[in-house]
Automatic annotation (TrEMBL):
Keyword field contains Signal: yes
Keywords for this protein: Glycosidase, Hydrolase, Signal
Glycosyl hydrolases family 39 N-terminal catalytic domain boundaries: 34-530
Position of the signal peptide: 1-24
Protein name: Xylan 1,4-beta-xylosidase
Keyword Signal: yes
EC number(s) per entry: 3.2.1.37
Family note: Belongs to the glycosyl hydrolase 39 family.
Lineage top rank: taxon: Bacteria
One annotated GO molecular function: xylan 1,4-beta-xylosidase activity
Length: 567
């Protein structure tokens, strides 16, 4: 009898444990709840994401460069802005990694300037024909103007010493008057070629990351170079918009110190070119980067330093009454620093080909909107320093949007953003990490970050949802329940776009082919198709009850969905 009773008790205890274990598992798999209220506007869905850039300007007018630019122009509801380095660098226009040239300025045997705009025109013509806008970078130093010209042309390759890139182009001018005249002649030429109204719609900015080795002069020498450049711009077109300083790391000590000093120079410093007080400043720029690492044999992202750079940069600009309302551009805003450092030489960059890059992009850009809301700054654009690399191995792991003319998953996030227009509206999720928490420690918790960004226009609404975690590990898909309130129609057409292992993912398609480095024409066509934004099934008509719609999806880890509703 005792044994039977003992057995019964043990059985009940085991059942109790199993029951509660089952309840715990069910709780873990209970749907994440996201609530969208279309009647609560939080801001405008201004496409600050429609800004892109790269080191190698000569890719612009090459085969794959033109193809990608056309795709970028097509996906944005407003003109896309392009920023490139090396627009004044001396050379024959032959591209290489982290190198480009235009030969815009040389000198004859008597030291007289010779201007040649042919290559720059090829670059800007490509933009203008596509309805894009140059975010025109004034730099780098032509060889004939460099105060330390030799060595000039670098031949850096991934895995080599990164400091090898900082050669004669990074030095101050040997003649500030000639430097100013070069800038004046360039801006004057653009006005003659494209018209005053067109050039007035551009932004000009001086140099790149002067707080690190991109500038081999002192801080005062940079201010002097800026002042002469600004005077050259304004002489050619008084209504032109110019700014800087494009510092690296808005939250780093050197970045904050340089940004503050630059702003104060432009407000109240003595202008080196005019002798008057202050210098023209129409746009303020700084850079923001994340910091991935390898942890336990997998990539671990870190969004914290990137968002910290943005927050601190915003705060610095807002702290001066003279600049708090000026437009801000994050001139480079990326998961890490070196676009041309592939995953073969930098294993922590292995996130770039697959859905890790796309989910990080969705989650980080949504936080930029929230930072703008909280700090009330005039945010104009965030440049994704990612484009394409001509004639390089397939899926080499560069930080690019396409490889050999085939779009990578990250480009489809920007296609999703392009369908989000009108106002931003309130989104609440019970699994979205707060901005402060991300800045403090990244997204490293036991649970993934499942959040949303939503928009409402006159006849449509869109909800972007992501399932992101800093650790690039596989995990079960998560059920998500989305409630949309405030729909003005009795019926909507729902289209569900998706980026995951099976959708909008050329990289997974390429791996299934056996990772060919010389794919056939038929394989290239298949990869091009796989690289486009794809849907989960076909659009469907759904009934709206009392202005509310309930949607249920299952979202894989590192997946991104866009739920587009039209009426």
């Amino acid at each position: 009898m005792k044994n039977k009773l003992k057995y019964a008790i043990l059985t009940l205890f085991a059942a109790f444990i199993c029951y509660h274990s089952s309840i715990a598992q069910q709780r873990d798999q209970q749907a994440v709840t996201i609530a969208v209220d279309l009647n609560k506007k939080t801001g405008t869905m201004y496409p600050f994401w429609a800004w892109f850039g790269h080191d190698e300007p000569n890719y612009t007018y090459m085969k794959d460069g033109k193809k990608l630019l056309a795709e970028l122009a097509a996906l944005s509801p407003t003109p896309v802005h392009m920023r490139v380095h090396n627009l004044l660098t001396t050379g024959d226009g032959t591209p290489a990694l982290k190198w480009g040239s235009t030969n815009a300025y040389t000198e004859d045997a008597n030291g007289k300037p010779v201007y040649n705009w042919r290559i720059i025109d090829s670059i800007f013509d490509t933009y203008i024909k596509l309805g894009m806008k140059p975010y025109a970078q004034i730099g780098f130093m032509p060889e004939a103007l460099s105060s330390h010209p030799q060595p000039y042309r670098h031949h850096w390759q991934p895995g080599k010493n990164y400091n090898d890139i900082y050669t004669g182009w990074a030095y101050p001018p040997n003649d500030y008057g000639k430097w100013e005249e070069l800038v004046y002649q360039w801006v004057k030429h653009t006005v003659n070629r494209y018209g005053k109204k067109e050039v007035e719609s551009w932004y000009w900015e001086v140099w790149n990351e002067p707080n690190i080795d991109y500038w081999k002069g002192t801080m005062p020498e940079f201010f002097k170079m800026y002042d002469f450049a600004a005077r050259g711009v304004k002489r050619a077109l008084p209504t032109a918009k110019i700014g800087g300083p494009e510092v690296a790391g808005g939250s780093s000590q050197s970045g904050m110190k340089f940004l503050r000093a630059f702003i104060e120079h432009c407000i109240s410093g003595t202008n080196y070119a005019t002798g008057k007080t202050g210098s023209p400043l129409d746009v303020i720029s700084f850079h923001a980067k994340g910091q991935p690492t390898i942890a336990d044999q997998h990539v671990r992202m870190n969004m914290a330093p990137q968002l910290r750079d943005i927050a601190e940069g915003f705060k610095i600009v807002a702290s001066y009454p003279q600049t708090k309302n000026l437009p801000i551009v994050i001139g480079e805003s990326d998961p890490e620093g070196c676009a041309a450092c592939g995953m073969a030489t930098n294993p922590s960059n292995a996130y770039r080909n697959g859905t890790m890059y796309s989910s990080y992009t969705a989650a980080s850009f949504a936080r930029k909107y929230r930072l703008v809301d909280s700090l009330q700054v005039n945010f104009l654009g965030a440049v994704s320093w990612s484009f394409e690399f001509e004639n390089q191995p397939w899926f080499f792991g560069f930080r690019d949007l396409a490889t050999n003319g085939v779009d990578k998953p990250v480009l489809n996030v920007f296609r999703m953003f392009g369908m989000m227009t009108g106002d931003r509206v309130q989104v609440q999720s019970d699994r979205m990490y707060g901005v402060k928490a991300v800045i403090d420690s990244g997204i490293r918790g036991a649970k993934t970050d499942i959040g949303g960004l939503a928009s409402k226009d006159k006849r449509s609404s869109a909800v972007m949802v992501w399932n992101y975690h800093d650790d690039d590990l596989l995990a079960d898909a998560q059920p998500v329940s989305i409630t949309v309130n405030g729909l003005p129609a009795g019926k909507v057409t729902l289209t569900h776009f998706r980026i995951d292992q099976e959708h909008s993912n050329s990289y997974e398609a390429w791996k299934k082919m056996g990772s060919p480095q010389n794919p056939s024409d038929a394989q290239v066509k298949e990869l091009e198709q796989a690289g486009q934004l794809q849907t989960m099934g076909k659009p469907e008509q759904l009934k709206v009850t009392a202005g509310q719609l309930q949607l249920k999806i299952t979202l894989p880890r590192q997946g991104v969905s866009l739920l587009k509703m039209s009426w």
